[in-house]
Model the fold of this input.
Amino acid sequence: MTTYLLKLFVTGASSRTGTAIANLNRICEQELAGRYELEIIDVLEHPDLAEDEKILATPTLIKTLPLPLRRVIGDLSNTEKVLLGLELQLKAHDTPTGGGALQ
Amino acid sequence: MTKAVVHAGVEKVATGISSFDIIAKGGLPRNRTTLISGTAGSGKTIFAVQFLAAGIQAGIPGVFVTFEESATDIRKNMLSFGWDLAAWEAEGKLAFVDASPDPSIDTIEAGGFDLGALLARVQHAVRTVKAERVAVDSLGAVFSQFSDQSIVRSELFRIASALKAIGVTAVLTAERTDDYGPIARFGVEEFIADNVMILRNVLEAESRRRTIEILKFRGCDHQKGEYPFTIVPDGGVIVIPLSAMHLSMKSSNVRISSGNAQLDEMCGGGLFRDSVTLVSGATGTGKTLTVTQFLEGGASNGERCLLLAFEESRDQLVRNATGWGFDFEQMERDGLLRVVCDYPDVSGLEDWLVTIQAAIRDFKPQRVALDSLSALEHVGTRKAFREFVIGLTSFIKHEEITGLFTSTTESLMGGDSITETHISTLTDSIILLRYVEMFGEMKRGLTVLKMRGSAHDKAIREFTIDKGGMIMGRPFRNVTGILAGTPVHLSPSDVERVWARADSEADAKERRRPT
Done:
């Protein structure tokens, strides 16, 4: 069973930050219960980490593991796109048309 | 060089970019954002990097934010201008915020976002190196990294105001599609910044001409209109501030010899020290000889002379001079003569101006001769040519150097050239050399057409050339229409009648004068 390593970059405690964290927690609990690790990084406190990852936008979600690396930006309100970004669509519904994840 | 200039309430920061501060009347407004818009290849990135480089060289740290080229590419590209960005980074004087797109990373947009991370990185970099200058290259590239344009738009406004809040002076570049069209591609860039400058790289008559224009400086003054500039390998952007040059011209009453005593006499005692003389004539009338005499006249007085030769090779010049009895090679050995000799087409007129100015600064001559302006006439457009002549004459005068330029007329007899009509007002003196057809023989005539600030001989004199140079003869008293190119011979009786009257009037005047 693969463990998902996720990093979420946010700017301070804004309402957008709150929305993103809530959305991500919901999605993870539904799709990845018990097999994910999430790290939340505030770019105002750690601009150097944002520099290392070359982050421009907040919130930015990075899937470090499993490879390949994927990024999703925004408040994660569009669940479908988040799942697409995490390549979870394929596993959850087992649809053969989600070919992008196979490359 | 980088001291602050107070101007009409808005303080300015001297950028240190060659001559840019002149047209900007002191520099860029401090603590404000300035947009630099231009088409592809107009020199935006170079200007942006130079703004930081000039600051760092004067001890002011900077931050470069790149959205387009990677930091690695910029470091490499800028080495050719002599700016070692990596070394400055190591010394803690420069920091990069590399926001260039990474094609290896797949990004999906899922909901609303802001550019908070970018802003945090910029602020972090500014704090780390204690930057006072920030360059952002380029705004348009931010738009292409995100699909939601309205967010990018409002976020760029936020970043621009944040830059002002942290007290830095910033330049932001933006692309435009047309040299004469909308200010920038996305139509909002000009509203993001306080000030707007435009770099152009216009194709005119098969040659590229770069200009810089300050469109607006909120709350402070600047020079208006387009100014030519060039980009040189180890200096970057060099602006040619034409109107500013005019203001600083000096004027001297000191006379120097043209190298020919008879010509000096015709000029009322010689040429003025910081004047520019134009010698115009058809091919073979003696222009190069006039130049050679001028140089020899300087060298024999211990003055350094610079010859800019665009028509003949160095060897030809030396041989010609030897034929007239002047030893160029000895003058060179004595360090009194330097010859810059090249094909006029090897570079643009702006580049020539920069090259010539560099040669003048390096050799510090008292005399500069250019043979001939006509050879340079076709290198650029008429406007560029006129600007070149303005730039060169003002520079020469400013440095208190005596200049002698030649220009070739197209027709053998009389006529004038484009060169003349374009630059005659810019020169202080004009000497015309003309062929005069006399009874089946070509004779040479010389006249001093104009001599600013001095009386001069108005006659058209015949002259001959032999070993030793020019020998002035008698005025052509029995010919009219020489300058028009249609000499008409008058009968001796007509001539005598006219001159007899003139002579008797002069005698009468002489008699009336109290003793």
Summary: The longest strand of chain A covers residues 4-10. Chain A has four helices and four strands. The interface with chain B takes residues 9-12, 16, 19-20, 23, 43-44, 47-48, 50-51, 54-60, 68-78, 81-82, 84-85 of chain A (CB under 8 Å). The two ends of chain A are 20 Å apart (CA to CA).
